[in-house]
Design goal:
Blueprint lengths: L2 E13 L5 E9 L2 E7 L1 H4 L3 E8 L5 H6 L6 E8 L11 E2 L9 E7 L5 E2 L1 H5 L37 E2 L4 E13 L4 E5 L9 E6 L5
């Protein structure tokens, strides 16, 4: 599996050779360094750990972990079916992707604070007739009757909306700019501008 860390830069549009205009998300990715290689014999599974952005200050355990490469600010693991020639210190850049590749982009969605049921879960709200002047946006009943006599865990209710790990799947790579470390993918990706993203090869290619 191919993957790289980066940051979301925003959205723009590209005019393709056939005249079609594509809305794309611009992602600045890499270069990343391999900071650790995990094997099935030693760790029970196969993966590589990659680091992104140089860290200004690390504590002793963190500095010791990356002593063979460079002080890295962000570390993530990528499970691998085959490790191939992966080794500590190896450089990974955007050239691992080509236009036409299908990728998944993982990020943290924008936080929207405390939200009600209509905004958070697309509830329809209560009827606006028969004197229900204060129930228009109320969630309605959430109980489950005498048995079990409580509210089930996971019941859709008002609460904290957004600010959680989200993955946009099966996005098409439209353009790769190796000089500026940019990957442009069709459509939107989760997160705000400058938010961290993980771009990885899709396992479920459309």
């Amino acid at each position: 599996m191919k993957g790289i860390l980066g940051r979301k830069q925003g959205m723009t549009r590209l005019f393709m050779e056939d005249g079609v205009v594509e809305a794309v998300s611009v992602l600045e990715a890499g270069p990343c360094l391999v900071t650790q290689v995990k094997t099935r014999q030693r760790n029970g599974y196969q993966a590589i750990q990659i680091g992104y952005e140089e860290a200004r200050k690390l504590n002793e355990p963190e500095a010791g972990h990356v002593r063979r490469v460079a002080p890295m600010r962000h570390l993530r693991e990528l499970r691998m079916d085959e490790l191939g020639d992966a080794q500590v210190g190896q450089r990974i850049d955007v050239t691992i992707f080509q236009p036409g590749d299908i990728v998944d982009v993982e990020g943290v969605s924008k936080g929207k604070g405390f939200a009600g049921g209509m905004k958070r879960h697309n509830f329809g709200g209560g009827p606006k007739t028969h004197g229900q002047s204060d129930r228009g946006r109320a969630p309605g009943s959430v109980g489950a009757g005498t048995s079990p006599g409580r509210v089930w865990k996971g019941t859709k209710m008002a609460g904290h909306m957004g600010d959680r790990k989200t993955t946009a799947m099966n996005l098409k790579v439209v353009h790769v700019d190796a000089e500026r470390n940019l990957v442009m993918v069709k459509g939107s990706v989760p997160g705000a501008r400058n938010g961290m993203v993980m771009i990885r090869e899709s396992r479920r290619k459309s």
